[in-house]
Amino acid sequence: MVGFDLDMTLIDPRPGVVATLDVLSNETGVRIDGDLLASRLGPPLEWELANWFPAAEVDAAADRYRALYLTHALTLTTALPGAVAAVAAVRADGARAVVVTAKQHALAVASLAHVGIVVDEVVGWCHGVAKGAALREHGATAYVGDHVADVDGARAAGAVSVAVASGPCSAGELRAYGADVVLADLTEFAGWWRMGA
After folding, report:
1. Which of 88, 7, 102 is nearest to 46 (CA)?
2. Which CATH superfamily is domain 2-12+78-194 in?
3. Is the pTM of this model over 0.85?
4. Which of 5, 71, 115, 138 makes a 20 to 30 Å CA pair with 78?
């Protein structure tokens, strides 16, 4: 089984994230820098919203953001280059592809369906080392992600960490952090997979 992160690994949700945050900002009167938040996707939404909302309001703001997401973000979400082919290559070899993400499960499932990426299972609400438990449970031998926190998740699972420099962390940062394999993006994944991973 190969695990994949979602945002900035398989999909680019940034335009939709910004659009959704704009609506949230207008509704709440709180100025949110959507471009800044979208430039550093990876951590849980609540962590990011804590930069703009008082602690007592963060959970409600996150709930409202998620309620707005399907309407304002989904149609702006695209598959990243090589993503469809990477998942297809894994499944064509008889291996399972499982998405393990910090995103809410329902939003992750809807995002994958929108961009036409078919996986065997989706596990939501996991970040960093917490991804390790989900990856172990599904028997992952590798985990593909774009963030140093995804490297932590792979390590926690005893899986090979395959990092793609398509998100907020550069190839150099991912390599220095200890990723086992660093790819520019998922267009290089199929070649790595065919070499026997």
Report:
1. 102
2. HAD superfamily/HAD-like (3.40.50.1000)
3. yes
4. 138
